[in-house]
Specification:
Layout: H1 10-16, H2 23-34, H3 41-51, H4 57-69, E1 73-77, E2 83-87, E3 94-98, E4 104-107, H5 110-122, E5 133-136
Parallel strand pairs: 3-5
Antiparallel strand pairs: 1-2, 3-4
Helix pairs in contact: 2-3, 2-4, 3-4
Bound molecules: zinc ion.
The site of zinc ion has 5 residues, from loops.
Length: 146
């Protein structure tokens, strides 16, 4: 899910890290925050270099690091060994990953959210953060006539 986008000061963030905000970094940040789904670094690189041929893979990695450290994007690993990124937003969701196609379905279930709170409380905790990734294989359509 995409964030309402550039509502933070990316330039200030770069400065804090002792980095200059270049056009290339800005483009990578815009791609990351505007992306649908959960792109990995290669996908972000492909999208960003279409917008500016001067974007390098190193710039993508560095910008990902800046935004991740600042809590603006979060990293996911959906079991295929590739880090994927998503803008952090207020509307929480969980993920269902198709292990054959790597399609990622986002879902929200209020009963599940209540259950997470309940489990944390049972062990004497206040829930601060949580994530749930389900892995599945699409059921084959089975026709009893065949
Ligand atoms: Zn997601």
């Amino acid at each position: 899910m995409s964030n309402s986008a550039f509502d933070f000061d990316f330039e200030a963030l770069c400065q804090k890290k002792g980095l200059k905000m270049t056009d290339q970094r800005r483009i990578v940040a815009q791609v990351l925050l505007g992306a649908q789904g959960h792109p990995d670094v290669e996908e972000v690189y492909a999208m960003a270099s279409k917008l500016d041929a001067k974007v390098s893979l190193a710039t993508v990695y560095r910008t990902v690091r800046i935004l991740e450290d600042a809590g603006i994007i979060q990293k996911h690993s959906f079991g295929d060994g590739r880090a994927r990124y998503e803008a952090v937003s207020d509307d929480h969701h969980d993920h269902l990953i198709d292990i054959d196609t790597r399609e990622v379905i986002e879902f929200y279930n209020p009963k599940l959210e209540a259950l997470k709170q309940e489990i944390a409380a049972k062990y004497g905790y206040t829930l601060i953060d949580h994530r749930l990734d389900l892995y599945g294989r699409r059921k084959k359509h089975t026709d009893p006539e065949c």
